[in-house]
């Protein structure tokens, strides 16, 4: 009799463990689906913002970027079709606060650029480091963009900037112009070594900065880039004027 009770208890425990395992599996699957949709939505919002900035720039600028915009539109259509719609108030807030959008096709990111590195800015996208310049075609300038590496936004961060190699392209779109940069190198620095952010005569520089080594944060990885003419050979300054 006692052995039968023990067997029944064992069976109940076994069934309970199965139910718990099944529930955890459903929860994990649901969370992964939610996370995937959230990140797709985040990327789509940045793509939409990028298009808004292009529309606000001059007609002449739009014409010179036509070929490249068409290619990117084909790639982005699939993303925008499947992405869920985010709250309109959130879109308006981001549109008002963002000063540009950075696109790095090699690592699949499109992120809004904010004018500071507050916690909220780095949740929304990437931020401009204090005492460095806003993105522009002006020479003797340096723009340093700081961003998280991983975290809740996973690949829609600077997670994979270490994979960028010399010659890779970075694109920044602002309300005034479209800027292209080529990666020229990488460097690992200490968190307080901001002396590396030096302006250089005749150059328009862009640095991407994030924690290193991932997932730790006791150093900083710099990906260094310099402004170039776009793929059609048109200078960004010429486009605007």
Question: Can you describe what's shown?
Answer:
The chain has 241 residues and is an alpha+beta fold. It has one domain (2-240): Sortase (Sortase, Chain: A, Beta Barrel), CATH 2.40.260. Helices cover 41% and strands 23% of the residues. The chain is built from six helices and eight strands, in the order H-H-H-H-E-E-H-E-E-E-E-E-E-H. An eight-stranded mixed beta barrel has the order 1-2-3-4-7-8-6-5. Helix 1 packs antiparallel against helix 3. It is elongated. The model is unreliable at 77-86 and 235-241 (pLDDT under 50).
Helix segment tally: 6
Q: Which oligomeric state applies?
A: single chain
- The secondary-structure class comes to alpha+beta
Report the sheet with the most strands, covering strand number, pairing sense and barrel closure. 8 strands, mixed, barrel
- Number of individual domains: 1
Mean pLDDT: 80
Instruction: Calculate Rg over CA atoms.
Output: 23 Å
Q: How far apart, in Å, are the first and last alpha carbons?
A: 94 Å
Find the CATH superfamily.
Answer: Sortase
Q: Helix coverage percent of residues?
A: 40-55%
Shape: elongated
Shape-level CATH architecture: Beta Barrel
The strand order across the widest sheet is 1-2-3-4-7-8-6-5
Low-confidence stretches: 77-86, 235-241
**% residues in beta strands:** 15-25%
How many β-strand runs? 8
Order of helices and strands: HHHHEEHEEEEEEH
CATH hierarchy class name: Mainly Beta
CATH topology: Sortase, Chain: A
Key terms:
8-stranded mixed β-barrel; Sortase, Chain: A; alpha+beta; elongated; 241 residues; 23% strand
């Amino acid at each position: 009799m006692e052995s039968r009770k023990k067997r029944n208890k064992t069976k109940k425990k076994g069934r309970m463990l199965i139910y718990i395992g099944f529930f955890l599996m459903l929860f994990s699957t649901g969370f992964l689906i939610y996370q995937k949709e959230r990140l797709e939505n985040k990327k789509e919002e940045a793509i939409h913002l990028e298009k808004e900035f292009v529309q606000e720039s001059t007609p002449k600028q739009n014409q010179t970027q036509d070929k490249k915009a068409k290619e990117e539109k084909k790639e982005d259509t699939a993303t925008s079709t499947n992405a869920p719609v985010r709250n309109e108030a959130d879109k308006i807030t981001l549109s008002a606060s963002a000063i540009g959008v950075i696109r790095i096709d090699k690592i699949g990111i499109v992120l809004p650029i904010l004018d500071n590195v507050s916690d909220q800015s780095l949740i929304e996208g990437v931020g401009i480091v204090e005492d460095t310049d806003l993105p522009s075609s002006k020479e003797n300038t340096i723009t340093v963009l700081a961003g998280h590496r991983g975290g809740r936004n996973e690949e829609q961060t600077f997670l994979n900037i270490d994979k960028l190699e010399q010659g890779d392209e970075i694109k920044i779109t602002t309300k005034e112009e479209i800027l292209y940069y080529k990666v020229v190198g990488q460097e690992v620095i200490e968190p307080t070594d901001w002396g590396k952010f030096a302006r250089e005569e005749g150059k328009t520089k862009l640095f991407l900065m994030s924690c290193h080594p991932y997932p730790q944060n006791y150093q900083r990885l710099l990906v260094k880039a310099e402004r170039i003419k776009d793929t059609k050979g048109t200078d960004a300054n010429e486009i605007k004027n």
